[in-house]
Amino acid sequence: MWLFYAVAASICWGMSYAASGPLLNRGFSPLLFFFGYTLFGLLGATLSLFCSGRISSLWKLPAMERADAPWFFFSIAIGALGAYLTYVAMGAKNPTLAALIEVSYPFFVVLFTWLFFREVQLNSITLCGGILVLAGVAVILLGEK
User: Fold this and answer.
1) What's the whole-model pTM score?
2) CB-based contact 34:83 (threshold 8 Å)
3) Which domain holds residue 75?
4) Residue 24 CB: number of other CB atoms within 10 A?
C-alpha cells in the first residue's frame, strides 16, 4: 500500500501545484495558501479522527519518551515551514520549476537521517536513483541561467 499512497500523494501535489501557480502569479499571497493548507489539514484531521472513533484517543497519546517530544515538534514545525516555502517558491518562479527543484528533497532526507540518527538507508540502486535526481536538478538549474 505504501506505493499507492506515495503515488496518490504525488498526484495530489501535482494537482495542487498546477492549480496554485496561476493564482500565485496573479498576486495571491503564499501566506493565504499556507493558511488554507493548515486550515484544511486541521478540519480534515478532526473529521477523520471523529469519523474513525479515534478522537478520544487523541488525548491518550502513547507514552512519549522525553527524547521524542523535541523530534515530534521539530518534525511538524519544519514540515509546516517547508509547505510555506513551497508556495513562496512557486510564487517567485513557477510551479513546474519549483517542483523540479523540490524533488531533490530525498537527498536531504538521506543527509539528515545520517546527521540526526547516524542511519544510512541507501543501497546501490537507491544511490544511483538519487544521483540521477541530483543530476536532473543540476541540468534544470544550468538551463535557467
Assistant:
1) 0.81
2) yes
3) 20-40+71-102
4) 23
